[in-house]
Amino acid sequence: MSDEVFGYKCPVCKGLNAKDAIYCNVCGHWMLDTVHEAIPVTKKEYFSGSKASSSKVVSIKSANRSRRRTGGNITKVSSWVVILAIIALIFPFLPKGHTVSTIHYPTDVTTVSKDYDWTFNNTNYAWHVDVPSALLEWDRQMHDTVVSYYASHNGYAQEAMAESMPANVTDLVMSYSANTSDSGVTWVEEQQNYTFIGSLADALNTLAEEEHFNDEQKIEFLQSFVGGAIPYIENASYQLPAQTLVEGGNCGTKSVLLAAILKHLGYKVALLEYRDQDHMAIGVSANLTEFPDYTPVSFNKDDLSYYFLETTEPNWKLGQLSSDKLTDPVISPVN
After folding, report:
1. Taking the model in full, what pTM does it have?
2. Rounded to an integer, what distance in angstroms lies between the CA atom of residue 268 and that of residue 286?
Protein backbone atom coordinates (compact mmCIF):
# COMPACT_ATOMS: atom_id res chain seq x y z
CA MET A 1 0.00 0.00 0.00
CA SER A 2 2.89 2.32 0.72
CA ASP A 3 4.03 1.98 -2.92
CA GLU A 4 0.63 3.03 -4.25
CA VAL A 5 0.61 6.26 -6.28
CA PHE A 6 -0.60 9.01 -3.98
CA GLY A 7 0.20 12.08 -6.08
CA TYR A 8 2.32 13.46 -8.87
CA LYS A 9 5.42 15.59 -9.05
CA CYS A 10 5.48 18.25 -11.71
CA PRO A 11 8.27 17.56 -14.25
CA VAL A 12 8.81 21.31 -14.66
CA CYS A 13 8.87 22.82 -11.19
CA LYS A 14 9.03 19.59 -9.14
CA GLY A 15 6.06 20.74 -7.12
CA LEU A 16 3.82 18.08 -5.55
CA ASN A 17 0.25 17.77 -6.73
CA ALA A 18 -2.75 15.67 -5.80
CA LYS A 19 -3.40 12.51 -7.75
CA ASP A 20 -6.35 13.96 -9.66
CA ALA A 21 -4.67 17.29 -10.49
CA ILE A 22 -4.90 18.25 -14.15
CA TYR A 23 -2.68 21.36 -13.88
CA CYS A 24 0.24 21.89 -11.55
CA ASN A 25 -0.89 24.00 -8.63
CA VAL A 26 2.51 25.72 -8.61
CA CYS A 27 3.46 26.56 -12.20
CA GLY A 28 0.32 25.60 -14.12
CA HIS A 29 1.94 22.89 -16.22
CA TRP A 30 -0.53 20.48 -17.81
CA MET A 31 -0.09 17.33 -15.74
CA LEU A 32 -1.50 15.08 -18.48
CA ASP A 33 1.29 16.00 -20.88
CA THR A 34 2.68 12.75 -22.39
CA VAL A 35 5.94 14.40 -23.50
CA HIS A 36 6.84 15.91 -20.17
CA GLU A 37 5.09 13.42 -18.01
CA ALA A 38 4.23 13.96 -14.37
CA ILE A 39 6.25 11.85 -11.91
CA PRO A 40 4.17 9.57 -9.68
CA VAL A 41 4.98 9.69 -5.92
CA THR A 42 3.95 7.51 -3.00
CA LYS A 43 2.21 8.73 0.12
CA LYS A 44 5.50 8.67 2.03
CA GLU A 45 7.32 10.59 -0.70
CA TYR A 46 4.44 13.01 -0.98
CA PHE A 47 4.41 13.93 2.71
CA SER A 48 8.18 13.79 3.17
CA GLY A 49 8.55 16.26 0.33
CA SER A 50 5.61 18.42 1.26
CA LYS A 51 7.64 20.73 3.51
CA ALA A 52 10.31 21.29 0.90
CA SER A 53 7.63 21.53 -1.71
CA SER A 54 5.82 24.16 0.34
CA SER A 55 8.99 26.14 0.59
CA LYS A 56 9.53 25.80 -3.11
CA VAL A 57 5.95 26.79 -3.80
CA VAL A 58 6.40 30.09 -1.96
CA SER A 59 9.63 30.74 -3.78
CA ILE A 60 8.21 29.99 -7.21
CA LYS A 61 5.01 31.94 -6.64
CA SER A 62 7.01 34.91 -5.48
CA ALA A 63 9.12 34.64 -8.58
CA ASN A 64 6.00 34.41 -10.71
CA ARG A 65 4.56 37.48 -9.02
CA SER A 66 7.84 39.26 -9.61
CA ARG A 67 7.75 38.33 -13.26
CA ARG A 68 4.14 39.43 -13.52
CA ARG A 69 4.92 42.74 -11.87
CA THR A 70 7.91 43.29 -14.11
CA GLY A 71 5.94 42.29 -17.16
CA GLY A 72 3.09 44.59 -16.10
CA ASN A 73 5.49 47.48 -15.65
CA ILE A 74 7.06 46.80 -19.01
CA THR A 75 3.59 46.67 -20.56
CA LYS A 76 2.63 49.94 -18.89
CA VAL A 77 5.83 51.63 -20.00
CA SER A 78 5.36 50.31 -23.53
CA SER A 79 1.80 51.60 -23.56
CA TRP A 80 2.91 55.06 -22.49
CA VAL A 81 5.64 55.05 -25.11
CA VAL A 82 3.07 54.23 -27.78
CA ILE A 83 0.66 56.91 -26.51
CA LEU A 84 3.38 59.55 -26.41
CA ALA A 85 4.53 58.57 -29.88
CA ILE A 86 0.98 58.96 -31.21
CA ILE A 87 0.62 62.36 -29.53
CA ALA A 88 3.93 63.46 -31.01
CA LEU A 89 2.73 62.44 -34.46
CA ILE A 90 -0.66 64.15 -34.33
CA PHE A 91 0.28 67.20 -32.25
CA PRO A 92 1.39 69.28 -35.26
CA PHE A 93 -2.03 68.68 -36.81
CA LEU A 94 -4.13 69.57 -33.75
CA PRO A 95 -6.05 72.86 -34.00
CA LYS A 96 -4.20 75.85 -32.64
CA GLY A 97 -5.85 78.03 -30.03
CA HIS A 98 -6.39 81.80 -29.78
CA THR A 99 -8.18 83.96 -27.24
CA VAL A 100 -10.09 87.10 -28.13
CA SER A 101 -9.40 90.07 -25.86
CA THR A 102 -11.87 90.56 -23.02
CA ILE A 103 -13.60 93.93 -22.66
CA HIS A 104 -13.54 95.20 -19.09
CA TYR A 105 -16.14 97.42 -17.45
CA PRO A 106 -15.91 99.69 -14.39
CA THR A 107 -16.39 97.88 -11.10
CA ASP A 108 -19.75 99.58 -10.49
CA VAL A 109 -21.22 98.11 -13.71
CA THR A 110 -23.03 94.83 -13.10
CA THR A 111 -22.50 92.31 -15.88
CA VAL A 112 -23.51 88.83 -17.00
CA SER A 113 -20.60 86.69 -18.19
CA LYS A 114 -20.48 84.25 -21.08
CA ASP A 115 -17.64 82.07 -22.35
CA TYR A 116 -17.53 81.13 -26.02
CA ASP A 117 -15.58 78.49 -27.91
CA TRP A 118 -15.59 77.93 -31.65
CA THR A 119 -13.37 76.78 -34.51
CA PHE A 120 -12.42 78.47 -37.76
CA ASN A 121 -9.97 77.12 -40.33
CA ASN A 122 -8.74 74.41 -37.97
CA THR A 123 -8.00 76.93 -35.22
CA ASN A 124 -9.79 77.01 -31.87
CA TYR A 125 -10.92 80.34 -30.46
CA ALA A 126 -12.07 81.26 -26.98
CA TRP A 127 -13.66 84.44 -25.69
CA HIS A 128 -14.91 85.65 -22.34
CA VAL A 129 -17.58 88.33 -22.79
CA ASP A 130 -19.23 90.48 -20.12
CA VAL A 131 -22.65 91.86 -21.01
CA PRO A 132 -23.97 94.81 -18.96
CA SER A 133 -26.95 93.60 -16.95
CA ALA A 134 -28.90 96.80 -17.61
CA LEU A 135 -28.59 96.30 -21.37
CA LEU A 136 -29.65 92.67 -21.13
CA GLU A 137 -32.67 93.65 -19.04
CA TRP A 138 -33.64 96.30 -21.62
CA ASP A 139 -33.42 93.70 -24.39
CA ARG A 140 -35.62 91.27 -22.44
CA GLN A 141 -38.20 93.98 -21.83
CA MET A 142 -38.27 94.76 -25.55
CA HIS A 143 -38.82 91.08 -26.29
CA ASP A 144 -41.73 90.92 -23.85
CA THR A 145 -43.21 94.14 -25.23
CA VAL A 146 -43.23 92.82 -28.79
CA VAL A 147 -44.72 89.50 -27.72
CA SER A 148 -47.46 91.25 -25.73
CA TYR A 149 -48.27 93.64 -28.57
CA TYR A 150 -48.70 91.00 -31.25
CA ALA A 151 -50.37 88.52 -28.89
CA SER A 152 -53.24 90.96 -28.59
CA HIS A 153 -55.78 90.71 -31.40
CA ASN A 154 -57.60 93.78 -30.18
CA GLY A 155 -56.80 96.79 -32.34
CA TYR A 156 -57.80 99.22 -29.61
CA ALA A 157 -55.51 97.53 -27.10
CA GLN A 158 -52.61 97.66 -29.55
CA GLU A 159 -53.28 101.32 -30.27
CA ALA A 160 -53.32 102.10 -26.55
CA MET A 161 -50.02 100.26 -26.08
CA ALA A 162 -48.43 102.09 -29.01
CA GLU A 163 -49.51 105.49 -27.67
CA SER A 164 -47.83 104.76 -24.32
CA MET A 165 -44.53 103.69 -25.88
CA PRO A 166 -41.50 105.96 -26.43
CA ALA A 167 -40.75 106.56 -30.10
CA ASN A 168 -37.72 104.24 -30.17
CA VAL A 169 -39.76 101.40 -28.67
CA THR A 170 -42.59 101.98 -31.13
CA ASP A 171 -40.13 101.77 -34.03
CA LEU A 172 -38.81 98.43 -32.76
CA VAL A 173 -42.29 97.00 -32.23
CA MET A 174 -43.69 98.16 -35.55
CA SER A 175 -40.68 96.83 -37.49
CA TYR A 176 -42.23 93.37 -37.08
CA SER A 177 -45.56 94.47 -38.51
CA ALA A 178 -46.70 92.65 -41.64
CA ASN A 179 -47.26 96.07 -43.18
CA THR A 180 -43.63 97.15 -42.99
CA SER A 181 -40.66 96.43 -45.23
CA ASP A 182 -38.22 96.86 -42.34
CA SER A 183 -37.66 93.09 -41.76
CA GLY A 184 -35.56 93.74 -38.66
CA VAL A 185 -33.27 96.56 -39.80
CA THR A 186 -34.37 98.69 -36.84
CA TRP A 187 -33.22 95.92 -34.49
CA VAL A 188 -29.76 95.93 -36.08
CA GLU A 189 -29.46 99.67 -35.56
CA GLU A 190 -30.94 99.94 -32.03
CA GLN A 191 -28.54 102.41 -30.48
CA GLN A 192 -27.71 100.82 -27.13
CA ASN A 193 -27.08 97.39 -28.60
CA TYR A 194 -25.29 98.75 -31.65
CA THR A 195 -22.84 100.62 -29.44
CA PHE A 196 -22.24 97.53 -27.31
CA ILE A 197 -21.84 95.26 -30.33
CA GLY A 198 -19.39 97.75 -31.79
CA SER A 199 -16.92 97.13 -28.97
CA LEU A 200 -17.20 93.37 -29.50
CA ALA A 201 -16.81 93.76 -33.25
CA ASP A 202 -13.60 95.73 -32.71
CA ALA A 203 -12.18 92.98 -30.49
CA LEU A 204 -12.97 90.31 -33.09
CA ASN A 205 -11.57 92.49 -35.85
CA THR A 206 -8.31 93.02 -33.95
CA LEU A 207 -7.75 89.28 -33.80
CA ALA A 208 -8.72 88.86 -37.45
CA GLU A 209 -6.15 91.50 -38.39
CA GLU A 210 -3.49 89.70 -36.34
CA GLU A 211 -4.34 86.54 -38.29
CA HIS A 212 -3.89 88.50 -41.54
CA PHE A 213 -7.33 87.54 -42.82
CA ASN A 214 -8.47 89.13 -46.06
CA ASP A 215 -12.00 90.56 -46.26
CA GLU A 216 -13.54 87.27 -47.32
CA GLN A 217 -11.81 85.33 -44.55
CA LYS A 218 -12.70 87.98 -41.97
CA ILE A 219 -16.39 87.81 -42.88
CA GLU A 220 -16.35 84.01 -42.63
CA PHE A 221 -14.45 84.22 -39.31
CA LEU A 222 -17.21 86.45 -37.90
CA GLN A 223 -19.80 84.05 -39.31
CA SER A 224 -18.08 81.16 -37.52
CA PHE A 225 -18.46 83.01 -34.21
CA VAL A 226 -22.16 83.77 -34.60
CA GLY A 227 -22.92 80.42 -36.22
CA GLY A 228 -20.72 78.25 -34.00
CA ALA A 229 -20.22 79.86 -30.61
CA ILE A 230 -23.82 80.95 -30.06
CA PRO A 231 -26.38 78.13 -29.67
CA TYR A 232 -29.26 77.88 -32.11
CA ILE A 233 -32.59 78.24 -30.27
CA GLU A 234 -35.53 77.77 -32.62
CA ASN A 235 -38.06 79.91 -30.74
CA ALA A 236 -35.67 82.75 -29.84
CA SER A 237 -37.51 85.47 -31.76
CA TYR A 238 -37.78 89.22 -31.14
CA GLN A 239 -34.33 89.52 -29.57
CA LEU A 240 -31.83 92.34 -29.70
CA PRO A 241 -28.14 91.39 -30.11
CA ALA A 242 -27.10 91.38 -26.44
CA GLN A 243 -29.91 88.97 -25.53
CA THR A 244 -28.93 86.69 -28.40
CA LEU A 245 -25.33 86.66 -27.17
CA VAL A 246 -26.43 85.50 -23.74
CA GLU A 247 -29.39 83.26 -24.51
CA GLY A 248 -28.78 81.97 -28.04
CA GLY A 249 -30.82 82.79 -31.10
CA ASN A 250 -32.62 81.56 -34.20
CA CYS A 251 -31.98 82.43 -37.84
CA GLY A 252 -33.55 85.88 -37.48
CA THR A 253 -31.90 87.00 -34.25
CA LYS A 254 -28.52 85.59 -35.25
CA SER A 255 -28.80 87.44 -38.55
CA VAL A 256 -29.51 90.69 -36.71
CA LEU A 257 -26.43 90.11 -34.53
CA LEU A 258 -24.07 89.31 -37.40
CA ALA A 259 -25.41 92.19 -39.47
CA ALA A 260 -24.71 94.58 -36.57
CA ILE A 261 -21.13 93.28 -36.23
CA LEU A 262 -20.40 93.59 -39.94
CA LYS A 263 -22.08 96.99 -40.27
CA HIS A 264 -19.94 98.38 -37.46
CA LEU A 265 -16.81 97.17 -39.29
CA GLY A 266 -17.83 99.05 -42.41
CA TYR A 267 -19.35 96.28 -44.53
CA LYS A 268 -22.49 96.91 -46.54
CA VAL A 269 -25.00 94.32 -45.42
CA ALA A 270 -28.65 93.44 -45.90
CA LEU A 271 -31.14 91.17 -44.15
CA LEU A 272 -32.46 88.47 -46.48
CA GLU A 273 -35.92 87.32 -45.45
CA TYR A 274 -37.39 84.18 -47.02
CA ARG A 275 -41.00 84.42 -45.97
CA ASP A 276 -42.19 81.23 -47.67
CA GLN A 277 -39.50 79.23 -45.88
CA ASP A 278 -39.74 81.21 -42.61
CA HIS A 279 -35.99 81.78 -42.74
CA MET A 280 -33.58 84.67 -42.55
CA ALA A 281 -29.93 85.08 -43.52
CA ILE A 282 -27.83 88.09 -44.41
CA GLY A 283 -26.27 89.44 -47.57
CA VAL A 284 -22.81 90.99 -47.63
CA SER A 285 -21.41 93.18 -50.36
CA ALA A 286 -17.79 92.13 -50.84
CA ASN A 287 -15.26 91.11 -53.47
CA LEU A 288 -14.83 87.37 -53.59
CA THR A 289 -11.28 86.26 -54.30
CA GLU A 290 -11.62 82.51 -53.75
CA PHE A 291 -14.10 80.20 -55.43
CA PRO A 292 -13.70 76.69 -54.00
CA ASP A 293 -16.29 74.07 -54.87
CA TYR A 294 -19.54 76.04 -55.12
CA THR A 295 -21.11 78.73 -57.25
CA PRO A 296 -21.47 81.92 -55.16
CA VAL A 297 -25.04 83.18 -54.88
CA SER A 298 -25.77 86.89 -54.69
CA PHE A 299 -28.80 89.19 -54.86
CA ASN A 300 -28.98 92.72 -56.23
CA LYS A 301 -30.62 95.68 -54.53
CA ASP A 302 -30.13 99.38 -55.28
CA ASP A 303 -27.14 98.72 -57.55
CA LEU A 304 -25.38 96.63 -54.91
CA SER A 305 -24.74 92.91 -55.05
CA TYR A 306 -25.10 91.05 -51.74
CA TYR A 307 -23.59 87.60 -51.33
CA PHE A 308 -25.69 85.17 -49.32
CA LEU A 309 -24.36 84.24 -45.85
CA GLU A 310 -25.99 81.68 -43.55
CA THR A 311 -25.96 82.49 -39.82
CA THR A 312 -27.54 79.54 -38.02
CA GLU A 313 -24.51 77.21 -38.16
CA PRO A 314 -20.74 77.62 -38.56
CA ASN A 315 -18.52 76.95 -41.58
CA TRP A 316 -20.77 78.35 -44.29
CA LYS A 317 -18.81 80.24 -46.92
CA LEU A 318 -19.64 83.65 -48.29
CA GLY A 319 -22.02 83.14 -51.21
CA GLN A 320 -22.65 79.48 -50.34
CA LEU A 321 -26.40 78.86 -50.37
CA SER A 322 -27.54 76.66 -47.48
CA SER A 323 -30.63 75.36 -49.31
CA ASP A 324 -31.79 75.30 -52.93
CA LYS A 325 -35.25 76.28 -51.68
CA LEU A 326 -34.01 79.72 -50.65
CA THR A 327 -34.92 81.90 -53.61
CA ASP A 328 -36.28 85.42 -54.12
CA PRO A 329 -35.72 86.92 -50.64
CA VAL A 330 -37.05 90.22 -49.34
CA ILE A 331 -33.85 92.29 -49.26
CA SER A 332 -33.57 94.93 -46.56
CA PRO A 333 -30.29 96.87 -46.77
CA VAL A 334 -28.70 97.92 -43.47
CA ASN A 335 -26.53 100.75 -44.83
Report:
1. 0.70
2. 8
